[in-house]
Amino acid sequence: MGKSKSDKLSIFLSLVLRHHPEAANLKLDEHGWANVDKLLVGINNTGRKIDRTILEEIVATDKKQRYSFNSDRTLIRANQGHSISVDVELLEQKPPEFLYHGTASRFMESIRKKGLKSMSRLYVHLSKDIEVAREVGKRHGNPVVLKIHSGKMDRDGYKFYFSKNGVWLTKKVDMKYFEEINV
Ligand code: HQG
């Protein structure tokens, strides 16, 4: 099935709000917020058609709830997933005993040597569900799921954050805190 117009707009929105605001001639503030009116003008100027109603619809129906408006809906930001350095005021939270990370087999040689790194993003992304991790891994190829000993990491002083849309985040995961599991 091809991607719908709204899927394509949503992908562009996440590119703009997480990685390349300049693609819509925008700047994000230090907390990752973009001005909604400027965002709409910026996106329309790329030849894509969007208005406030369409944007509200994308935000409301996004399956992963990737975006939030501020209280008066003049600003919008991505809840997580950034590569640019913004502080989205993530909530530090005690993790469950185990979390999961989905990756691809082709990355495993490097991951076994160096541990899990955030690569181009600000954090390593983890989930509480094995199935979600498997789906994330699939995006990169033959999926591999790593079981993360997040409780042990917490007791060893590593910080964990929980995004507004339910993604667990941490800066890095050393080799001794994960194991490959069969799924
Ligand atoms: C891997 C999606 C080599 C890492 C998802 C991953 C997620 C290493 C890839 C969110 C490595 C980075 C993030 C090392 C880690 N050597 N490879 N030392 N350490 N890697 O896309 O976690 O749809 O930046 O395993 O749902 O795949 O965008 O991260 O495979 O929550 O909202 O390097 O993106 O959400 O890939 O995905 P990514 P990710 P959205």
Q: Could you characterize the architecture of this molecule?
A:
31% of the residues are buried. This protein has helices spanning 5-19, 36-44, 52-61, 108-114, 130-138, 150-155; strands spanning 34-35, 67-69, 75-78, 91-92, 99-104, 124-126, 143-148, 161-162, 168-170, 178-181. By secondary structure, it is of the alpha+beta class. A hairpin with a 5-residue loop joins β8 (161-162) and β9 (168-170). A four-stranded antiparallel sheet has the order 4-8-9-6, with no helix packed on it. Strands 1-3-2 form a three-stranded antiparallel sheet. The structure holds ligand HQG. Ligand HQG is lined by residues 64, 66, 81, 103-104, 107, 110-111, 114, 116-117, 119-121, 125, 136, 140, 167.
Order of helices and strands: HEHHEEEEHEHEHEEE
Q: Kindly report the average pLDDT value.
A: 96
Oligomer: single chain
Sheet with most strands: strand arrangement = 4-8-9-6
- What ligand molecules are bound, each kind once? ligand HQG
> Uncertain segments of ≥5 residues (pLDDT<50)?
none
* CA(first)-CA(last) distance: 26 Å
Shape from CA axes? Answer: globular
Q: Helix count, per DSSP?
A: 6
Question: Would you count the extended β strands for me?
Answer: 10
Radius of gyration: 18 Å
Class by alpha and beta content: alpha+beta
